[in-house]
C-alpha cells in the first residue's frame, strides 16, 4: 500500500475510489490493519456481525492507550471510514448512550425520525425500530439474547438459536422466541399489543403466568394483571390504504422523490427501507429483508394502483439481483 495514499486516507483527504481501494487492501492484508491497531480486540469471526456502536466503544478504549504509530485524530478518522465503508450494516437510528455496567457494554438505540430503521444484532437477528421507539441490549448479546424495549414499537426477526432463547422485556412482560418474527408495542396505557407473524412465542410475567402462541395472532395483554384477549387485525381495504398512504407521503416526503396520482405512484431514488414500509402498509404484509445491502439501497420506478405485489417484487429483484419468497403474508427478500 502506497504511503502517500495511506496518509490521505488517515487525514480524510482521499477520494471515494482511493478509500475503497484502501479498505479492500486492509481487508485482505490483516498485517497492515494490525499496524493501525483499530479492531485488535474483536475476534476475526465477529467482524461482520459486531454492531458499529460496539466497535466504536472498543475503539475508544483502545485510543485511551498510548500509540506512537499514528495520532489520535488520524485514528479516529480511519476508524470512522472503516466502520462506514468496510463493514456494512442496516440503516439505524441514532444510538443514545454507551455505558459500561459490570464490565458489560450497554447499548441504547432510539429512532426519533419519521420512518422505520433497521438494526442488526450481534447474533444476526434484526430489529425494525419504528419512529419514536427505543430499545436497549448488551454487548454479551450472543450468550444472553435479551432486549429491553423502553418505548414505542419494534418488530424482531429472530435468528434461530435453541441454546440461547431470544427475549424481549417491556413493562414487566417478557416475550420469548426461538426463530420467529413478532412485534411488541403499546396498545394503550394499561396494555401491550404483541403480534406473532411467524413461528412461536411464549409471553410471561414475573409471576410466571404464561400464554403461548404458535400461529399468526395478535395478543392484547394487560401489563399489571396479565388479562389478555386475542384480536383480529382490521381487514385492509386497498383503495382506502392507497388514499391514506398518499396523504402520508405528501406530508413526509418531497414530491421529487415520491409523486402520487390517483392511479400511479412514482418513486425516484427512494430508500428501499421506505419503499418496504409503504408496501407493507398498502398490501398488509410483512417484509423480511435478510441482506443489509438491500435495505440500504434505493429504488426508482412506478407502482400502479391495480398492480399486484408480485410484479413489483419481480421488478425490484431484477434490479437488485435478489430473490423473494411469499408465504401467506410474509415476504422474504434475500
SSE sequence, one letter per element:
HHHHHEEEEEEEEEEEEEEEHEEHEHEHEE
Proportion of residues in β-strands: 25-35%
Shape: globular
Q: What top-tier CATH class of the largest domain fits best? A: Mainly Beta
| Strand arrangement in the largest pleated sheet | 1-2-5-6-8-9-12-13
Helical residues, percent: 25-40%
**Structure class:** alpha+beta
CATH architecture heading of the largest domain: Sandwich
Question: Whole-Å distance between the termini?
Answer: 35 Å
Number of domains in the coordinates? 3
> Major sheet: size, sense and barrel closure?
8 strands, mixed
Uncertain segments: 37-50, 61-93
Report mean pLDDT, rounded to a whole number.
78
The CATH topology label of the largest domain is Jelly Rolls
Describe the structure.
With 334 residues, this protein is of the alpha+beta class. The chain has three domains: 3-85, no CATH class; 95-231, Jelly Rolls; 238-333, Phage tail protein beta-alpha-beta fold, CATH 3.55.50. It has helices spanning 3-10, 16-28, 30-35, 52-63, 72-85, 238-252, 272-283, 292-295, 309-320, and strands at 95-101, 104-111, 117-120, 126-129, 133-138, 146-151, 154-157, 166-170, 173-177, 181-186, 191-198, 201-205, 210-213, 217-222, 228-231, 258-260, 264-271, 286-289, 298-304, 324-327, 330-333. It has an eight-stranded mixed beta sheet, covered by helices on one side. Helix 6 runs antiparallel to helix 7. The longest helix has 15 residues, at 238-252. Mean pLDDT is 78; it is low at 37-50 and 61-93.
Amino acid at each position: 500500500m502506497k504511503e502517500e495514499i495511506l496518509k490521505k486516507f488517515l487525514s480524510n483527504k482521499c477520494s471515494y475510489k482511493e478509500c475503497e481501494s484502501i479498505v479492500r487492501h486492509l481487508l485482505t492484508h490483516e498485517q497492515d490493519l494490525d499496524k493501525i491497531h483499530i479492531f485488535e480486540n474483536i475476534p476475526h469471526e465477529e467482524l461482520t456481525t459486531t454492531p458499529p456502536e460496539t466497535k466504536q466503544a472498543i475503539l475508544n478504549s483502545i485510543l485511551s492507550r498510548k500509540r506512537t504509530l499514528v495520532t489520535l485524530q488520524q485514528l479516529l478518522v480511519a476508524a470512522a471510514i472503516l466502520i462506514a465503508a468496510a463493514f456494512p450494516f442496516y440503516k439505524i437510528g441514532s444510538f443514545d448512550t454507551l455505558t459500561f455496567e459490570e464490565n458489560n457494554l450497554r447499548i441504547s438505540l432510539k429512532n426519533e425520525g419519521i420512518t422505520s430503521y433497521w438494526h442488526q444484532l450481534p447474533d444476526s437477528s434484526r430489529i425494525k425500530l419504528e419512529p419514536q421507539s427505543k430499545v436497549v441490549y448488551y454487548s454479551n448479546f450472543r450468550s444472553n439474547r435479551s432486549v429491553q424495549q423502553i418505548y414505542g414499537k419494534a418488530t424482531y426477526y429472530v435468528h434461530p438459536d435453541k441454546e440461547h432463547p431470544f427475549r424481549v422485556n417491556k413493562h414487566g412482560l417478557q416475550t420469548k422466541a426461538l426463530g420467529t418474527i413478532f412485534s411488541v408495542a403499546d396498545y394503550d396505557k394499561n396494555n401491550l399489543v404483541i403480534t406473532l407473524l411467524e413461528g412461536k412465542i411464549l409471553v410471561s410475567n414475573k409471576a410466571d403466568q404464561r400464554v403461548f402462541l404458535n400461529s399468526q395472532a395478535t395478543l392484547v395483554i394487560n401489563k399489571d394483571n396479565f388479562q389478555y384477549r386475542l384480536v383480529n387485525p382490521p381487514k385492509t381495504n386497498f383503495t382506502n390504504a392507497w388514499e391514506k398512504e398518499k396523504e402520508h407521503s405528501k406530508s413526509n416526503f418531497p414530491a421529487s422523490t415520491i409523486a402520487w396520482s390517483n392511479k400511479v405512484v412514482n418513486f425516484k431514488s427512494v430508500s428501499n427501507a421506505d419503499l418496504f414500509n409503504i408496501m407493507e402498509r398498502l398490501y398488509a404484509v410483512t417484509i423480511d429483508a435478510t441482506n443489509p445491502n438491500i435495505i440500504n439501497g434505493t429504488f426508482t420506478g412506478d407502482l400502479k394502483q391495480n398492480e399486484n405485489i408480485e410484479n413489483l417484487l419481480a421488478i425490484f429483484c431484477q434490479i437488485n439481483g435478489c430473490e423473494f419468497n411469499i408465504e401467506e403474508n410474509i415476504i422474504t427478500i434475500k
